[in-house]
Amino acid sequence: MKGAPDPSGAPSLKEDRLRQTHIPGRSSSSLAPAGAILVLLALGPWAGCSLTSPPSGTVVRGETSTRLDDYLSRAAGLGYSGAVLVARDGEVVFQKGYGKADREREIPITPETLFDIGSITKQFTAAAILKLEEEGKLKVSDPITRYFDDVPEDKRSITLHQLLTHSAGLALYSGDDYEIVSRETMIQRTLE
Asked: Given this model, what pLDDT does residue 174 score?
């Protein structure tokens, strides 16, 4: 059966190939999925530095970026697709796309490719809120009235914690996923 684990415990061909594409300096026995690497890389720009506007096009600066590019290029040959941006001290040191955005039409992923990321932003938002709380800039127990004006009376006691845990009692926003709305309009619709 395709995709079934080998009962002997032997690695699959794909796992074996990924082990062969390890990043130099790392143990070849530790298999780190590319997705996990991307999550760590995605946190980089927000970990204490500000990145105003990334450059357009591919950027590969320095030895670490070259090694990362080599690894991800080999992973792309095994089916990985995605875009990666790594910043150090606010400067983009690595930015590149891998694989196909549209396999049928052979459209490659570039650093400018837009992705429908849906709810994955929730974890990053929660991490950012907790970082701000750690820095003493807010408390998750703060009511939303501290951050938003004109909150209806029945929603004034909602806290940041309730928003983060989806326990605020807000109705689901049922607009079109691709509808472009302003921040103000979204807040108004959410608080109705």
From this structure: 58
> Closest by alpha carbon to 43, among 125, 138, 139, 134?
125
pTM of structure = 0.51
CA distance 62 to 73: 16
The CB density around residue 46, as the number of other CB atoms within 10 Å, is 14
* Alpha helices, H only, 21-179: 34-43, 63-77, 121-134, 160-164
Looking up tokens 């004006």, which residue turns up? 149
Q: Is the pLDDT of residue 144 over 50?
A: yes
Q: Cβ of 131: how many Cβ atoms within 10 Å?
A: 13
**CA separation for the pair 67, 81 (Å, rounded):** 17
Compute the distance between CA of residue 143 and CA of residue 152 in angstroms, rounded to an integer.
13
Cα–Cα distances in Å, from 82 out to 73, 95, 115, 161, 191?
11, 11, 9, 32, 35
More confident residue, 18 or 157: 157
> Which of 41, 117, 34 shows the shortest CA–CA distance to 76?
34
- More confidently predicted of 120 and 55: 120
